[in-house]
Amino acid sequence: MAEAHQAVGFQFTVRPDGVDLKLSQEVIKTIYLSGVTAWKKRAIQFKSLVKMFSGRRPLLYSFQASLPRLPVPSVDDTIHRYLESVHPLLNSDQYDQMERLANDFKDSKAAQLQRYLILKSWWGTNYVSDWWEEYIYLRGRSPIMVNSNFYIMDLLYITPTHRQAARAGNVVHAMLQYRRKLERGEHAPLRALGTVPMCSTQMERIFNTTRIPGIETDIVQHLTDRKHLVVYHKGRFFLLWLYTGGRHLLPSELETQFQRILNDTSEPQPGELKLAALTAGHRVPWAQSRIKYFGQGVNKVSLDAIESAAFFLTLDDEPQGYDPAKAKSLDSYAKSLLHGKCYDRWFDKSFTLISYPNGKVGVNAEHSWADAPIVGHMWEYVLATDCFHLGYTEEGHCKGDVNKGLPHPSRLQWQIPNECQEVIETSYLSAKLIADDVDFHGYLFHEFGKGLIKKCRCSPDAFIQLALQLAQFRDQGVFCLTYESSMTRMFRDGRTETVRSCTTEAVAFVRAMEDEGATKAQRLALFRKAAEKHQNMYRLAMTGSGIDRHLFCLYLVSKYLGVDSPFLKKVLSEPWRLSTSQTPQQQLNLVDINKFPKYVSAGGGFGPVADDGYGVSYIIVGENLITFHISSKFSSPDTNSCRFGQHICDAMLDIQALFKPENDKTTVEQLGNGKKHM
């Protein structure tokens, strides 16, 4: 997802000085510390593993110790696959130059760098993940709002209650239930395709986690057993205790507390209204302000309350959500979740829950600590628990008795000087420029879905990725480096890998689709070849044979050792003008969407990755719906998210038409009820 933006723009800030011996010591020290961190994680997880033997049902971490380490690919394989991936994007002279750079690297410097990675893979549990978190996320000094954070939407068609406080009450209670099961390791182990165990370590930091700004690098602070929540409403911050008498607050009790906040008419304190804009702007001013203005007194106490909270909740004052009667309702909803007003979400928290006055909800998630499927897992549990287990009264309130004896939520206190207020305003204005530049378009592709694609004996993901390549070419007239996020969680501490979707086979297929002289049979044959290639690349990425994380780590080692590599510099500076990601669904299978087809999520999305490119997230919902989330920048004269959405719709229908029998007289318009998307 959003890591593609950081993967191009990151700046390496470790600058060891001295002779080669000292440089080698620097990288060995870094590898050593990576291993120490990994062994500490193992010690913590061991407590959960021990529980496996006390019961019959496997627990969340039952298979963690049996997961293999992520292998380090051979340099020869990585360079071969890299050159293969850029071949369709370069002319002959450019390709020959890149081939020379690659071969020079392979023959001169690669072996030395590779040895350090192999050492790191032996000592640590994963040779990529800690460096990926640090250098792709935490060392980035640009704003994380839009550029890094992502969002997840509510149920698409259903709003179980239109009472804001009640919906927030049920959702927060469901989150507390999820957290309790997480702390006890009671969630079922995660498995790919329902059988292959996957790593669960990212789940440890869902709650009680905050990204803390620093001058050169941020850190991720994870605490345990946090018993409070911080709520933002109309410029005021409230602290709300989540426990009473040793138990969680009941949904009805939470509703009462949230309603008290909604009813509160007090005014924001000076500087309080836009305070959270500090988390939306550039990282260095935020880090400096945190030290200077929030290091003591009431400001420190209040900031500590936010950063140590279980999570952050915004009670928004503007209704959002998908409304088929409003053409741009999905667009507005997405932008609200992605950036809001730039000061009404705490973008540093692991996630901000956003509750709207019409009963809709959503999540904005910080990206450094985990990837989207982890937040999606929690969200699936919460929505299913909210609708099918907790429920509401006929009047739309939370079920259960009302307890008016609870102490009221308390206002956080601030003493923010004028100089700090100026920094807040500057951060707000810079964040607003970013937010206002987001050109977002979301639409629901109803014409067909996974069911029909599978009848075509094709992977749904490959089908959509090839449609995106066709749409990209029709939109821009050129092919571009394309990023598709794949997971590597079948390995211990695995996160993501890149699938480079613009292959030679995909280019040949797209050119055939645009060639009036190509026959339907030729186009279909090229499509199948390209789809097979894509599936194979996805399998390679998932099984540890991707190339981009390997190249990234080789580059890091080269910087530690002071080794100059024109090849690695070139590779790590290439822009991803099309960044794509599929949002997983039905990770828990708590809701039968065939029986309850209206209880489906619209998925989620992320901000534009390149200044002149597109970000596309999609979710394959059941058998007959695919939802697309498209982002770009208004400031680019070459992109238009709505136009690109139309190209995707057309491409999907044109590919589907290849599978129609020759004697089938059904028109494209009849297949898709016309080519106009929502």
Automatic annotation (TrEMBL):
It is found in: Mitochondrion outer membrane. Signal peptide: none annotated. GO terms for biological process: carnitine metabolic process; fatty acid beta-oxidation; long-chain fatty acid transport. It is an enzyme of class 2 (transferase). Residues 1-47 form the Carnitine O-palmitoyltransferase N-terminal domain. GO terms for cellular component: mitochondrial outer membrane. Keywords: Acyltransferase, Fatty acid metabolism, Lipid metabolism, Membrane, Mitochondrion, Mitochondrion outer membrane, Transferase, Transmembrane, Transmembrane helix, Transport. The keyword Zinc-finger does not apply. The active site is at H367 (proton acceptor). It is a multi-pass membrane protein. Residues 70-648 form the Choline/carnitine acyltransferase domain. Belongs to the carnitine/choline acetyltransferase family. This is Carnitine O-palmitoyltransferase 1, muscle isoform. It comes from Gasterosteus aculeatus aculeatus (three-spined stickleback).
